[in-house]
Specification:
Blueprint: E1 7-8, E2 12-20, E3 24-31, E4 36-43, H1 45-48, H2 51-64, E5 75-81, E6 84-90, E7 95-96, H3 97-104, H4 109-128, E8 141-143, E9 149-151, H5 156-161, H6 180-183, H7 190-206, H8 216-225, H9 231-234, H10 240-249, H11 261-272, E10 287-290, E11 301-304
Antiparallel strand pairs: 1-2, 2-3, 3-4, 4-6, 5-6, 7-8, 8-9, 10-11
Helix pairs in contact: 4-7, 4-11, 7-10, 10-11
Length: about 300
């Protein structure tokens, strides 16, 4: 175990463990240069000993660092110090979605769709930058106390799946959210992320993952061969639009799923009652707009910064 108080890269002082996974330990740390809390993910020894994996890990983390979106955990730094390989990320207070599902699922339809909408926003941004997540699951989705969704670990699954250490279970641990093509060993794609999000949405709405089994192999075969129990079996009054949305995301054939995260995002907004069929609105420049008559008590003009929400 790495000691609390250890300083990495001459700036990140480890304060406490906030997460443990098969691949890494996650610490909350203080960045002495910018005086802010950060999260530091440190590779476990069995991964750090594989030079090829470490190089892939660094490349994928550096690629993810190019992403900048409110629903994506920002990657700040990648480094090696004291024999430890680590990445430094935005610290997000709150819980991961899996913990909340265990305690509170099934969610209301509106709550589940709103979380799925934010995940979809993150995927759309990443896919535009040619980054596929490959491991969308509730454990990788953080929820702040204010309800903001933050997706983490973009690209990391690519490094893991390319490593000979995959057989140790690092990837199979996510098999409940794998797409059929991933279960067959085929490369992940945009459609794979959409399928995995469909699994997460199904679980939020029902409190159960789409498929269960006695082993990872058994679950993987169900992804390939079986259809999940209909949502109406759990939620008799669920709106048909929501049921159709989930069914399309979980189609076995990738070509029958939503063609993009943006298309799924529009369907989610439609199910929420928003404007779904309009293309994304471009950011507008700062404009001078007249103040409503009843609000005129001071200046006669109000500067309003218009932008996308």
């Amino acid at each position: 175990m790495i000691g609390i108080g250890t300083i990495l890269g001459n700036r990140y002082r480890l304060e406490e463990i906030i997460g443990e996974g098969g691949m890494a330990l996650v610490y909350k740390a203080e960045c002495s240069v910018l005086a802010r809390p950060v999260a530091v993910k440190i590779l476990r020894p069995q991964f750090a000993a594989d030079a090829e994996f470490v190089e892939r890990f660094r490349r994928e983390a550096q690629a993810a660092a190019r992403l900048s979106h409110p629903n994506i955990v920002t990657v700040y730094d990648v480094g090696q110090d004291k024999g430890l390989n680590y990445i430094v990320m935005e610290y997000v207070p709150g819980e991961n979605l899996k913990e909340i599902i265990k305690r509170e699922a099934p969610f209301t339809v509106a709550r589940a769709l709103n979380i799925a909408r934010q995940i979809c926003e993150a995927l759309h941004h990443a896919h535009q930058h040619n980054i596929i997540h490959r491991d969308i699951k509730p454990h990788n989705i953080l929820i702040t106390p204010e309800g903001l969704v933050k997706v983490t670990d973009f690209g990391i699954a690519r490094a893991v799946s390319a490593s000979t250490l995959t057989q140790g279970g690092a990837v199979l641990g996510s098999v409940q959210y794998f797409s059929p093509e991933q279960a067959k060993g085929a490369p992940a794609s945009v459609a794979s992320d959409i399928y995995s999000l469909g699994c997460v949405l199904y679980e939020m709405l029902t409190g159960s993952v789409p498929f269960k089994g006695e082993s990872p192999i058994a679950i993987a075969l169900k992804h390939i061969q079986e259809d999940p129990a209909p949502l109406r079996q759990f939620r008799p009054g669920i709106p048909p639009a929501v049921e159709n949305l989930v069914a399309r995301a979980l189609a076995k054939d990738p070509s029958l799923r939503f063609p993009s995260a943006l298309a799924m995002l529009r369907a989610i907004k439609a199910a929420l009652g928003g404007e779904a069929d309009l293309p994304g609105q471009p950011d507008l420049p700062t404009q001078v707009l007249p103040v409503l008559p009843q609000a005129r008590r001071g200046p006669r003009l109000l500067w309003v910064l218009l932008g996308s929400i």
